[in-house]
Amino acid sequence: MSARSATALARVDVLGVPICAGRFEDAVEEVAGWVARGERSYATFTGVHGVMESQRRADILDAHRDAGLVACDGMPMVWASRRAGVKRAERMYGPDFMLSMCERAAREGWTSFFYGGKPGIADDMADSLTARFPGLKIVGSYSPPFRALTPEEEADVDAMINRAQPDLVWVGLSTPKQELWMPRHRATLDAAALLGVGAAFDFHAGVVRQAPRWIQRSGLEWLWRLAMEPRRLAGRYLRNNPSFVFQIVRRPPRLMS
User: Fold this and answer.
1) 3-state helix, strand, coil in the chain (%, to 5)
2) Strand ranges (E), 1-151
3) Which of 10, 46, 113, 114 has a CA that sits 20 to 30 A from residue 121's CA?
4) For the purposes of burial, counting CB atoms within 10 Å of the CB of 119, is it exposed (0-12), middle (13-18) or buried (19 or more)?
């Protein structure tokens, strides 16, 4: 990992993915430190889907290994981390992390840029977040087309983001697109932190309902999301969840040095 931890985060090997485990507040402090110190890194919020995609493609695994923070998102990651010995491990849920960082950004004067989501989602999310956190500075947004951008278009997007001078670039492209986008653009963007929070865009824009807290804590959030978006998510969960259980039994998580 780049920008390695100045906080109390431990790292746990979950099928080769270096999950950062600890308290939720530790993850917030880690990213806040990047901004305060002028470092440049990126964070993924990784659950079963991200771990299993990393088993299928080396570039996705490399993206996780190069990240400054691979947040312990999803209760299976929490349970895996605790099994490896990190008893203080808590869920670092991307949508909740976004709220905590936006609250911190409003207080510190940090600026944010939103990259991703369908047209109009970023505007709705901006309205929701600025109403919740007065003083939050949002300096721009961009909803990319549903196709691969040309190198020229990607360079134009980088230039647009840099002109806005954000401290935080929030990336909502879904997994694994956002995990691949962040390392590809890390060297060309000036922002301190690129943060791949995926579904947080839809949640905070109010277009998709989040699961109740008791469902999130139970580890059954995937069933809630499947009920909300069955056509999009059925294949993912039916493929990933049984395979994850099988592989984690054969290769238990372990604490990394």
Assistant:
1) 50, 15, 30
2) 10-14, 17-21, 41-46, 69-72, 111-116, 137-142
3) 46
4) exposed
Give the Cβ contact number of residue 146 at 10 Å: 6
Q: By the 8 A CB rule, do 169 and 105 touch?
A: no
- For the segment 173-206, what is each residue's pLDDT rounded down to a tens digit? 989 999 999 999 999 999 999 999 988 999 899 8
Q: What is the rounded CA–CA span in Å between residue 142 and residue 160?
A: 9
More confident residue, 203 or 13: 13
In CATH, the architecture of 17-205 is: 3-Layer(aba) Sandwich (3.40)
| CA terminus-to-terminus distance, the chain | 13
Residue pair 201/121 in contact by the 8 Å Cβ criterion: yes
- Map residue 67 onto helix, strand or coil: coil
Domain ranges of the chain: 17-205
Task: Report yes or no: 46 and 73 within 8 Å, Cβ to Cβ.
Answer: yes
